[in-house]
Every structure is written in structure tokens, then in C-alpha cells.
Amino acid sequence: MNMKKTIAISLAVCLALILAACGGGTSSGGGGAINSPADFPGHEIAVQVDTTAAISIDEMIEDGMTGVTVHRYEKVTQCFDDLALERVDAVYVDSVVAGYYLSGGDKYRLAWVNDEGEPLGLCLAKESTALLAAVEAALDTMFFDGSMSRIAVEHFGEDFTAGLRNPSSAPTIPMDFTTIAEGKLLVGVEVGYPPMEYLAEDGRTPIGFDIDVSYRLGELLGLEVEFVNTAWDGIFFALERGEYDIIISSVSITEPRKERYLLTEPYVSNALSIVVRNE
Predict the structure, then answer these.
(1) How is residue 69 annotated by DSSP?
(2) Using CB atoms within 10 A of its CB, is residue 24 exposed (0-12), middle (13-18) or buried (19+)?
(3) 17, 45, 91, 195 from 152: Cα distances, Å
(4) Which parts of the chain register pLDDT below 70?
């Protein structure tokens, strides 16, 4: 069984419990219930721009799906705001984000989760091979010493990283890398994607799973972490321009991205999902 399938099964089991408890997906749109992407025709669907969900729904339309209205938002928070206001019928989104909104009460419910996983990785520029080696060793260290699991449980309520990496010993982290600013790790993030990266109640301090992963990564590499908040639709171009060393911001590992960038092995499980109002 390949890694994507293993990840998907683990994630689907966790989210299926939520789905079963909620009794399946419904929608106020004119096209009946939404139980999978096949039910999108006749409905208004919210996606964040330039995400794998947006790419997925565009591919469905290119393949002949008609009758679906796609609402594209710069922030995933805007997707859920409009779902709550009944301006859209569903949000097509990463399951790690779906879990966050489902845990906040009974306003929403999970209608569907893909049985094919789409795990997340850290993203670096093609020329950053030495830094990639150090980052991979640091991630393995986090899995070995339990800090990755601890961070996951704190932000997800359960460990969506379990089984992704199983190092038998603490690796040696190579320190022959360079960064853009000496002594610093500049991290590109799109703050506004809870529970992965978002702002604390003070409206200024970044918090979330990826934020804590970044700080732990910085500790292991002996670097001060500095976040560069960047809109998602420009986050990869800014990496290419050298505005930061690495993207730690819920980057799905896809073949097109692997061709253009360096991506680590997975550090958290994920899959596409559909969230609807709980009506």
C-alpha cells in the first residue's frame, strides 16, 4: 500500500467519525444534497484561490462538469464566513482546516472526505539542496523525539502526523547550509488558514500548527525564525524571488510543485473535503 493511500485511510477514519455523527451532508442550494464533488452541479461552492481544491474543481469543469458556480476567495476564512451567511452551499477545502471548523461547534458538518490522501510538505527553492537536507533531518528529529506529535495534538486534538515518519534513531542534522539572512530562517506563511497558521486574539501574533513547527525547526537548526506573511496566490513566486528561505504553510505535495520546487517528505496528513452547513 503506498504512502498516500495509508495517509488517506488514517485521516478518513478520523473524519468519518465526525461525518457519521453529523448524518451526512446537506445543502440549502437547489441541487439537492451534497455528498461528494459529483453533487456540485446546481450548487454554489467556495474555494480559496490557487489551492488544490481550486485546481481540483477547475479540472472537474474542464472535464465537462456544468451547472456549478465557483466562488473564489483570497482567504479560507472568507469561504466559511459566506457559508455561515448562506451565500454559498459548501466549502471545498483541506481536511485539516475542515476539522478546525467542525470542532468549533455544530454550525457545520462534513459532507465528504477524499479517500486519496494529499499530504503536506515544506517547500524550498530548487537551489536549496543543503538546507533541504538539514530540514529533513530536523523533521525526522521532531518525529523521533515526539515534538511533532505533541504540536499536532495541541492544534488538531489528535495526531494527524502519526505513521508518516518512523526514524529508528535521532538523525544527525547537517549544518553546512546557508540562509538568506545569517542566523535567521525566513519562513513564508499565509496567516489566515486556521488551525495551520492564523492570528492570535491580539490580531498581531501568528499562531497555529505550522507556526509551532517553524519555531521547533528553528531551534534544531540554530536559527531565529522570522515569518513573512504573504498572500497565498503569490507565496510561491515570492520564494522564487528569494524573499524567504522556506514555505511552511500547508503546502500540498503535488507533481507539478515537485517539478518546480524542492518539497520535503510529508509531515502531516491531509485530504480534500467538503463542508456544508449543519441544517
Answers:
(1) E
(2) middle
(3) 19, 29, 23, 10
(4) 1-31
Which pLDDT score is estimated for 239? Answer: 98
> So what's the pLDDT on residue 118?
87
The pLDDT value given to residue 47? 98
Quote the pLDDT of residue 24: 42
Please give the radius of gyration of the chain, using alpha carbons only, rounded to the nearest integer: 19
Burial of 279 (0-12, 13-18, 19+ CB in 10 A): exposed
* Long-range Cβ pairs for the range 74-78 (8 Å, 24+): 74/48, 74/49, 74/231, 74/232, 74/233, 75/48, 75/192, 75/193, 76/48, 76/51, 76/192, 76/193, 76/194, 77/192, 77/194, 77/198, 78/46
pLDDT, tens only, 182-194:
999 999 999 999 9
Q: 59: how many CB neighbours lie within 10 A of its CB?
A: 10
Alpha-carbon distance values, 53 to 10, 70, 91, 232 (Å): 20, 11, 9, 13
| Predicted local confidence at residue 31, as pLDDT | 65
